[in-house]
Design a protein that fits this description.
Largest sheet: 9 strands, mixed
Order of helices and strands: HEEEEHEHEHEHHHHEHEH
Shape: globular
Number of helices: 10
Radius of gyration: 19 Å
Strand content: 15-25%
Helix content: 25-40%
Structural class: alpha/beta
Distance between the termini: 43 Å
Length: 330
């Protein structure tokens, strides 16, 4: 398709109209404090898989509300010393799947923790983590679950799970907590931005074509799902527009990006109607760290850079302090 959003020369100057809630930091401090009242209880059970280059652990930990969250920890075979850690969050509708689908990062010499997203995994990948949290009426999907109240919103649980996933992964004796990077694609990129704003001591973040950014623009610019779920909800609940916008402001990647402290590698694609490039640039432009870069794929849609971006991310990881060749300290 042809370009539909702002032109490349205008994107670096774009700023989101999303208004940050006055109690944004207090909201998230309270949320994390409530969850940390539950023991993390991270567990790692070695899995016998027919793979010779990696070792796999079935991981679980206590996330939001003490709910058990699953994941995989994948290590290079024969690991005996703590390695730089990459924590990955998944795209919309997907689950952690099977271990052999997560070989790239460990093959580059890093410890790789993949968080299963609560309630998801029936769209692709296959998930193993239920979401005990309920909600009122919601459009099919996840975007409108509990959307009338920030405390009840689905992504409050997910973002909190993600922070705890970093804590759980760092607790394993073969991961180096001081060398931790968060990454993810689409929904996983949006979760990565949230983690980058809530965990102050990361070594880097790499949000790839991130979702969940600049809700005021995204929900009125694109007719593609998942953002369209919000429009479909408000098409029925016409009197809830203000309440929905108020809730979404607590979960906007733009506001998490403004709190980023680590080097960052973003990516976007100019034909991406799912996560429009202006919404990605809204987060990138709000990111206050000088050590940041964004890869732009001019003729791609939501697939973004695909394997080219994977190669770019691996090269970027090697350039981070302590993430030298094969995951060794520089």
């Amino acid at each position: 398709m042809a370009l539909f959003d702002l032109s490349l020369d205008k994107l670096p100057g774009y700023r989101s109209a999303s208004v940050e809630p006055e109690d944004f930091d207090a909201f998230w401090s309270r949320t994390l404090a409530e969850t940390r009242a539950h023991p993390l209880d991270a567990r790692f059970a070695r899995v016998d898989v027919p793979l010779t280059t990696v070792e796999v652990y079935d991981a679980s930990f206590s996330g939001f509300g003490g709910d058990r969250i699953r994941g995989w920890l994948v290590l290079p075979a024969g690991t005996t010393e703590p390695l730089p850690l990459v924590v990955e969050f998944l795209g919309y509708g997907g689950g952690r799947g099977l271990p052999h689908t997560h070989l790239l990062t460990a093959s580059a010499g890093y410890a790789h923790f993949v968080m299963d997203t609560r309630g998801q995994g029936a769209g692709w990948g296959g998930g193993d983590t239920p979401d005990p949290g309920g909600s009122g009426p919601a459009v099919p999907g996840y975007m409108t679950r509990g959307i009338d109240d920030p405390d009840a919103y689905y992504y409050r649980r997910v973002f909190t799970d993600a922070v705890r996933a970093v804590e759980a992964a760092r607790s394993h004796p073969l991961t180096d907590a001081s060398r931790t990077v968060a990454t993810g694609t689409s929904q996983g990129g949006g979760i990565t931005l949230a983690v980058g704003g809530l965990v102050p001591d990361l070594a880097g973040i790499a949000p790839n074509v991130p979702f969940l950014c600049d809700f005021p623009r995204a929900t009125t610019l694109t007719n593609k799902h998942p953002y369209r779920e919000i429009g479909a909800y408000l098409n029925v609940f016409r009197d809830r527009v203000a309440a929905v916008r108020s809730t979404l402001a607590y979960f906007d990647g733009v506001h998490f990006a403004a709190r980023g402290t680590a080097p960052a590698l973003f990516s976007t694609a100019l034909e991406d109607e799912v996560c429009p490039p202006s919404t990605v640039y809204a987060a990138f432009n709000a990111y206050p760290v000088a050590e940041k870069d964004i890869k732009v794929y001019e003729f791609n849609g939501h697939e973004g850079g695909g394997t080219h971006q994977e190669a770019a991310r691996l090269a970027w990881l090697r350039g981070l302090e302590g993430f030298g060749p094969g995951g060794r300290a520089a």
